[in-house]
Amino acid sequence: MRRVHKVTTALFLSGVLLGGIGTGIALVEYSSLTYGGEHLIGEEYLVTKNLDYEFEQDGRILILPRRYYMGRMRALRVETDDTVPVGTVRYEVTYNEKRLEPQLTFEPWEEEEETLEAEEESRMSQTEGEEGTDTDTSSVSEEEETVYAGYLYLSACEFERGFAVFMENKDRFLEELKEKKISTYQEAYITDIKVKVNPGTRPFVEAREGWN
After folding, report:
1. Residue of 108, 102, 118, 110 lying closest to 62 (CA atoms)
2. What element of type H or E holds 116?
């Protein structure tokens, strides 16, 4: 994600601010600037939207992987909600509508992936048997019976707004410079994600860690 302070710094060093701010800031006064901290811009454009995905509860498991937003991994917690229809996964997303449009993307489970996992489990069982180690065949059988439908993850169509963001907030940037401050600005992206399912659907969804 681009940070708007990079744009302001470039303009600052290029001399644009020296001629137009009217505060008498000169090159020798750069060292007198204080750091104003981190600020989130675009909060006035935050909206919350529900994205629903319907699937057939045929015994297969739907995987809900975590993904990166705003440069860090967002925790994905699945909540039960009686108001959500059975067979529906509802993503409640809070995001900057000027910056992006969120959407749900489904990727079907690859048969090869399922076969590889079964083969790996089989090899592990054989190895344990050769070493004379007791093998819990009941747990292996239970894992082999798990069938996955695929991955359902949240993606986003981003809008390019670098210079537009600067122009929308230039008065704020310049006001800080008049006060001899400079800050780090980050544009709001996706700020909150909640996943809700009906209690009857919860056994058929799995929040998986470490996938992005």
Report:
1. 108
2. helix 111-130
At 106, list the tokens.
């489904």
- CA 76 distance to own-chain centroid: 9
Three-state DSSP class for residue 57: coil
pLDDT digits over 30-76, tens only? Answer: 667 888 888 888 899 999 999 999 999 999 999 998 765 554 556 67
Q: Exposure pattern of 52-76 as b/e (b: 16+ CB <10 Å)?
A: eeebebeeebbbbbbbebeeeeeeb
- Which DSSP string corresponds to 61-82? EEEEE--EETTEEPP--EEE-T
Tens digit of pLDDT for each residue in 134-164?
Answer: 444 444 444 557 899 999 989 888 887 777 7
- Paired tokens of 30: 């750069």
Token pair in block for residue 186: 């980050």
At 25, list the tokens: 């800031």
Ranges of beta strands (E only) in the chain are 34-41, 46-54, 61-65, 68-69, 72-73, 78-80, 88-96, 100-108, 148-158, 181-187, 190-197, 205-208
Closest CA to 178 of 5, 2, 17: 17
